[in-house]
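Lab notes, practical 5.
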Amino acid sequence: MKTIRTIRAKFKKLLVKFYLLMSELSSVPISTLIILSSNPIHESYRMSMFKKLRLGLRMYLNTLHITTGTSYRAHLVMASKIMAIPPDILGDIVECGTWKGGSATNLSIICNIVGRKLKVYDSFEGLPDTKPGEPLANKNLKGAFAGMIDEVISNIKRYGEIECCEFEKGWFDDTLPKLNSPVLLAFIDVDLESSLHTCVRWIWPNLVDQGYLFTDEAAFLEYVALFYSEKWWRKYFNRNPPGLIGAGSGLPLGQYFIGPWTGRLRLEWYIKTFEEPIVVAYTQKNLSACWTYYPEDEEQ
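Output from the prediction step:
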């Protein structure tokens, strides 16, 4: 009797997994066209409807082949921002934290289309030790999310466009201060507060005026609070904080995560598939999110 129940449970799980796969696959064309229409793609890239659909399908299939912490929809959003900027505006694409190279693979495809360079920064040894003053850091995660550089390169060669890529191996504290070329878009997936601090600290001065900075840790309010911290932005850049579009839940891209994040797995794994905040949030160089209304001051 127990064996029959086990077989039924496995069959049910397999059936639900197949249903989710088919549901996701059937949504790829619609998601692709909607996301890639959210920004006007520059005419020089000649992105016909067929090319858009092929791009979306390729990105989706890559997330099945390579383990990644973000969805293909998130990668398409970054693609839409990159392809909206004219090619005469200089700037590389930067990724900080690549894991197995899933998002880097899809970003390399975009870089190939627009003729830009993808710079991949990672220790290729997993997460570093936490530092004092990181209340959100999990001290048991040292070495987590490690992808060996050979594995990442192999994945990009097989599923992406390796010719566009440069790899900067090492800890962010050592590699990012050497960054001295314009950045059009940066994708930061680094988990730790100290790493986020370092990445934004050294990437922001190189970000072009129309440039974007994306992060996938959108659900952790205390973490993304950096983008609203008047003290931090005044101290390092003497400007107002830029804010973060999608803070708290990520961009509304079909993953039905309402928030706030509790760290607990909700319901069954197949429900969690739809609810996980595996999307992104972003800010732009010219944005500002500083509160300026103080009526008491006006009365004085």
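Observations recorded by the TA: The two ends are 80 Å apart (CA to CA). The first strand starts at residue 92 and ends at 96.
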